[in-house]
User: Fold DOG1 domain-containing protein from Dioscorea zingiberensis.
Amino acid sequence: MNSCSQNSGTAPDDEEQQQSSSSPLKCLSLLKPLDFSRRAEKLPEVYGQWRAEQRASAGRIERQLRTRRALDDLIDAQLARFDAHYNHSPLLLRPRDVARLLDPPWNPPLANAALSWLGDWRPSAILSLARILSSFSPPSSSLSSLSPRAHRTLAEAIRRLKVQEAVLDQQVEEWQVMASVKMASGKGVAEELAKMEEMVARSQKLRYKALELAVKWVLDRNQAAEFLVAFAGVQDLAHRHAERWRARVGPVSVAVQACLPAY
Assistant:
């Protein structure tokens, strides 16, 4: 009886354990092979689609990289042209050449009055153009998103350039007084021409310094490209406007402090 009662007492537990231990096996044996077989059938299709997406994405990245490299090359080439113009062009300083540097005859007088400082842009005006473009460019322009840090850098650089411009302005005024005296006597002409050549060379270096700062250290590649296009466009616009004005009203004279005879 006891053995029967023990058997009768333990039999349900053994049966439950057997059922509980066999139920996962049934799930695994019935579901897992079926699910795996269905997924396995789709693996080639899924893998092929994944490879196609990777190729398309890599192609887009490669095209973008080629575009960026081409843009970098164009920006570097344009900056190299400015470097050659501002830092390596020879200055032929006869007396009349100095007058032409101060008031370039190849530009309409109105264009000279608008832009010219010792023959070209004021360096601070170059950087001011970047700030103006940032303020007035449409939202689609990359220059419209100029960062606060970039604005601060430009403002500080403009301040320093204006100090150096003021020093050059003072030196030019002093030079004009001394040169007018020496030219009248015919003595010390070569010395005065050398002084003016040095001042013009310094102004050219300041111009390139301003351009290089904007293009290489403040603006990103897209912003630098837009800035260089706008920089050339402003010069061209001023020249064309002055030409149209001259054609409509006749020659325009702009007062310039001239101290050298045209010989």
